[in-house]
Design brief:
10 helices, Dihydrodipicolinate Reductase, domain 2, 344 residues, alpha/beta, single chain, 34% helix, 6-stranded parallel sheet, globular, Rossmann fold, 2 domains, 25% strand
């Protein structure tokens, strides 16, 4: 059994607890939140032991894997301290997305995990659906030929006005992870953003990408759309055909070049994900299996390094917006904290 602890017990942290509690290879041994009443409530609900101090929990419990779901500004500013404490204690760690809303903090976690020899993963859960796996296999097997474009739309309704860049840093780790999953590393980014009427944040964005392979791509992202409608669409095209992945997992269609036939796969064929929460079960299950199987830290899926690469793309998009749509090379985005220089 993999012994797990969860740190941070708001809505997402409680979902982490539920996923681990229902996994047959996991024992949820401890939950931790600075608010002791939250920890005690979750502990009673999930039959775990409560803590309001991470170091105390690490010292007193036998733990293999720690989930960090502490949130903060742009959903990521409170991840660093508990993640580093768990890493330094020799635990495998899964951090909610974004891994951090600051590049130098993300780099600190990635470097610390590599030095300690532990696995660091991020909850980039949109790629962890059977439909995306099938689509990735098509790319790997040459069904699409040479990739030419990778386009994506992710739009939700959110009134979050906390920071100018919250839309980019809090939501689009998902988008850029999916784009990298299918298209590989990104070389250049160009962005144009707008603020919907009455909004103080850059709430809708149009972002162009150039991949290192030479393929091109695009993301349309928004906080201004109705959440009850389909939120996500990904289309990937190559010299031999293209596919469309609709609404995370609902359907996948392959359009081969030179043929009028289509290959359509619906949700029920893909082990019937029951809703968006099922992506958490898939993602956590994949990491649990990697831990159980002893997969080397540098070979895990949706790793801390992947999450760091995603945050670099986001910071490049922000810089491009600040520079009036100038294309920005990813190689010009630096991870280190520079005193006196505000990160984009």
């Amino acid at each position: 059994m993999i012994k797990v602890a969860v740190i941070g017990l708001n809505h997402i942290g409680l979902l982490h607890c539920r996923v681990y509690k229902e996994h047959p290879d996991v024992e949820l041994v401890a939950v931790c939140d600075l608010r002791g009443d939250m920890a005690r409530s979750a502990a009673e609900r999930f039959s775990a032991r409560p803590y309001d101090n991470v170091m105390s929990m690490l010292a007193n419990e036998e733990i293999d894997l720690v989930s960090v779901a502490t949130g903060g500004a742009e959903n990521g500013s409170h991840h660093l301290e508990p993640a580093m404490q768990a890493i330094e204690a020799g635990k495998d760690v899964l951090v909610e997305k974004p891994i951090s809303n600051r590049l130098h903090e993300a780099r600190m976690m990635v470097d610390a995990a590599a030095a300690r020899g532990v696995r660091l993963a991020c909850n980039l859960n949109h790629r962890f659906v059977p439909a995306a796996k099938r689509a990735k296999d098509w790319i790997s097997q040459g069904e699409l030929g040479q990739l030419l474009f990778v386009n994506m739309k992710l739009t939700i309704g959110s009134g979050n006005e906390s920071t100018p860049w919250v839309h980019m840093r809090a939501l689009h780790p998902h988008s850029f992870d999916v784009l990298r999953y299918f298209g590989g590393d990104v070389a250049r980014v160009q962005s144009f953003m707008t603020k919907a009427p009455g909004r103080s944040v850059w709430s809708t964005a149009s972002i162009n990408l150039e991949f290192t392979s030479g393929a091109v791509g695009h993301l349309t992202g928004s906080y201004d759309m109705h959440g009850g409608h389909p939120i996500e669409r990904c289309e990937v095209g190559g010299t031999n055909g293209r596919f469309v992945l609709d609404n995370v997992y609902e359907s996948l269609t392959l359009y081969p070049s030179g043929s009028d036939e289509q290959r359509v796969f619906k949700n029920s064929i893909f082990a019937s994900p029951s809703g968006f929460d099922s992506t958490f079960f898939n993602r956590f299950g994949a990491f649990i299996k990697e831990v159980k199987d002893g997969v080397p830290p540098d070979q895990i899926s949706a790793s801390g390094a992947d999450a760091l690469a995603v945050q670099r793309i986001i910071e490049a998009a922000i810089r491009s917006q600040l520079e009036n749509g100038e294309p920005i090379r990813i190689s010009d985005i630096h991870d280190e904290k520079r005193e006196g220089v505000q990160q984009a």
